[in-house]
Fold this protein.
Amino acid sequence: MELFNDALGAINSVIWHNIVLFIVLGVGVLFTIWSVFCQYRALTHGVAVTAGKFDDPNDPGAINHFQALSAALSATVGLGNIGGVAVAIALGGPGAVFWMWMIGIVGMALKTTEVTLSMIYRNTDEPENPHGGPMYVAQKGFAAMGLAPVGKLVGGIFVVTLLVSAVTGGNMFQAWNVADISHAYFGIPQIAVGIILCVIVGMVIIGGIKRIGRVAGTLVPFMCVIYLLAAIYVVLMNLGSVPEMLRLIVTEAFLPSEATGAFVGGTAGYALLWGMKRALFSSEAGQGSSPIAHSAAKTDEPVREGIVAGLEPFIDTIVVCTLTSLVILTTGVWNRAPDIDFSADARVIAVDDGKWSIEDTPIAASPREELFAGKVVFTIVSGEINPNSGMPYHRLSGKVIEAPSNTSSPFAIDWEVIDSSKPLEIVHQGAFSNYNGATLTAKAFDRTTDGLGKWLVTLAAWLFAISTMISWSYYGEQGVVYLFGEGAVLAYKLIYCVLVVVATIPALISTDAQLDNITALGTGLMLWANIPIMLIFGAVAMRAYHGYVTRLKNGDL
């Protein structure tokens, strides 16, 4: 597994290079200006369309505007908001939130453009079972230019990236987070959680997009309201900390973040990387995934659905992610003091030339944390410059083990080995519990009201994960139909459900970095495939958009 994660890390370092992030941001700015700030139309006209004002049951499509938005939101408003935001702050600091906002704003233009394109080029040969997405944009768009073979090739490449993202970020990330938080709070074996999720997801996805639309239309509004009310409560209880956290969000987006508590610090570029990466994963702006859900909407106006889609990044990133960020920041869980005290000073040891570790360290019984053999923890050490953060601080992981019988402590920590050209120094004489993703967010809720995170965030994680997995299963299904036809759909669905269980195998993922490796791969590959399609055919979308807006202003709709 170590070699596998190292390989994923090497690939992600290329596809998530800072230049790629700036290109995505630049494309969002381009379509924002080209559309003359379509964000305004999304927040006004888009709301009216979603409310059903323009619904026509005779239009081609399978689901109404609200269900299409709900199906797309069920894939975006999910554990990316609970677990993804936690990862961004834990590794990138408060400044990461600022760059999430930037992606949220320009992402509204990206979503409007990519969904408009997919609606223009969607396949409605079966009016009640339409097919759409960037693969059809490429196929039909290039064919209209006399380059049909190129269109098929580009569409096929996009579908391959779509399938990678469906089984990683849309499936495995969700299942793993639910299994992790359920095990952390209730001791439920991760594999048992995977089996339960597999059964639930399988029962829904076999029913197709109409059942997915009905489930999403019910589940998404309910879970969003419950989660947002709880987040607002936590923020209000910590209202005094909000101004300082907002200041940190803005200043640390451009200045280095100091290491404090469980946070190792980082450069402004590190905050940019994590903020944009997690916002793009959470909102899916520019990925080309949500156009597949919107392509099932009942409408004969392509731009109308594109404007509705512009609401997604606003709801997902500007509203939900911001509230989650403030919960984590104002409660201080991201830079907390050590959760576990050493019963004797820890001592650095040289393992080999340039390799260091810490001698097995006895720990005292902790009133703050449940201790058991196998529990993953970490401490902060300083050494050579961390190439990721630009700071000299590193997380050194370890596992709780039973202490020898001749010691007074019941447990000790067995530490991993770390490479460093400089001798290590221990920053804290204590260890931190390894809260990954959604579990870190849950602990933030618990800091305000004991048990709130345990029950509410666990429930939200289950609902968010289920809704996301069923929507992403549909995205992948449409890719399979494009490549192999309807006959391959059942095999795809079975494989998809099996991977839900595979993701919950404990040895597969154990740290934030490994979790990010899995999700970043699919998201990054889809951006590389979809952004060029948007740029090549963007003029088509913008002509249609401005024509629609002109008719809207003239009252012709």
